Amino acid sequence: MTVNPQHLELFHALLIGIGLSAACGFRVFVPLLGVSIACQAGYLQLSPEFAWLGSTPALLAFAIATVIEVAAYTVPFIDHLMDTFTTPAAVLAGTLLTASLLGDTSPFLKWSLAIIAGGGAAGIVQLGTLAVRGGSTLLTGGFGNLVVALLELAGSAVMTTLALLLPVLILAALLVIVFLVIFYIARRISARRRPPSSATS
After folding, report:
1. What is the count of structural domains for the chain?
2. What was the pLDDT predicted at 199?
3. What is the pLDDT of residues 54-75, one digit of tens each?
4. pLDDT computed for residue 196 by the predictor
5. Is residue 129 within 8 Å of 156, Cβ to Cβ?
6. Which domain range does residue 62 map to?
7. Please, which of 73, 108, 136, 156 could form a disulfide with 149 given CB 3.0 to 4.6 Å?
8. Residues 121-137: pLDDT tens digits?
């Protein structure tokens, strides 16, 4: 059975897109900055209509936005305010990045894959970060969120690097993330439903 090279190319591009989208779920602008740097270095080629992502103005804008986003997430309570904006932004960024990598594909297929795979991956990871930060806020009053923010930044940087350099590992990494998110949310739900223990006399 012969494998169509175009299908392999599409699958490879989709893996990169999913990885970058997942990274958007941690931090919106880190993967955008990574893609812009990769384009400037000639390592990554985007669809012509998305070539602006690799332009110098875009690189500078993503760099500034990344610094602002990272700094905002280090301030207790402001991080929750940021989630109001970054949750939809992460889904949009994931969709955009995935679409930018799918090359000469029919618009219907391109945007269907971009929305479902790219936007979906970003949304799942973002929901996971919301759950973890909510738990951290309850336990530490918000002051433990700095550790969460640093872990999210590291997760975004690692996922961006894997997506660009070793996209074959993306599926495994994403499956681990999905499992951890589901496990964490299930534990939270179980803890809420568990009746409080009665005090012994």
Report:
1. 1
2. 47
3. 999 999 999 999 999 999 988 8
4. 59
5. no
6. 7-193
7. 73
8. 999 889 888 888 877 77
In a domain, 25, yes or no: yes
Tell whether the model's pLDDT for residue 168 goes beyond 50.
yes
The answer to whether residue 201 is domain-embedded is no
Rounded to 10 deg, the angle between the 145-165 and 170-193 helix axes is 150
pLDDT tens-digit map of 170-183? 777 777 777 777 77
72, burial (CB in 10 Å: exposed 0-12, middle 13-18, buried 19+): middle
Q: What is the pTM of this model?
A: 0.83
What residue type is assigned to position 75 of the chain? V
- Is 97 within 8 Å of 20 (Cβ atoms)? yes
